[in-house]
Amino acid sequence: MKILALSGSLRAASINSALLRTATRLAPPGVDVSVCTVVGELPLFNPDLESSLPTSVVRLRAEVAAADALLIANPEYAHGVTGSIKNTLDWLVSFEPFANKPVAVINASPRARHADAALREILKTMSATIVEAASVTIPLLGAGISESEMAEEAAVALALRQ
Questions:
Q1: How many CA atoms, within 13 angstroms, populate the side-chain half-sphere of residue 152?
Q2: pTM for the full model?
Q3: List of the chain residues with pLDDT < 50
């Protein structure tokens, strides 16, 4: 199984991105989790570019098409999803291989319920299949845990493996 992980944060020290990188290390045999690296390279969504897609959009769509499922971690900004994840999803709105794609949503903060709800609504509107059993909140915001410690922290490791 091939899982593509998308982070809604572009921060170098993002806890959401760290959580996704930890998921790549904890993936069981037979499951390949890779973090998408083009999110920050995507131009702002513009339907006029559909006839001649930018290289970063072509790469995003190829990675999504090749994935069996998606894993999304997104922080909350002003009670909503980040512009980067919204822009990424906008580029996938009319992309047929995205429809019915299984998606799990990871939330690194129990307080980020507005963004979590907004992200789920966007994904449902785009015809994604949200895998509730794999969508979890892992309370890391303010926990002071480093990325290297995430894999060693039993609760974090268990949540990611499940």
A1: 5
A2: 0.93
A3: none
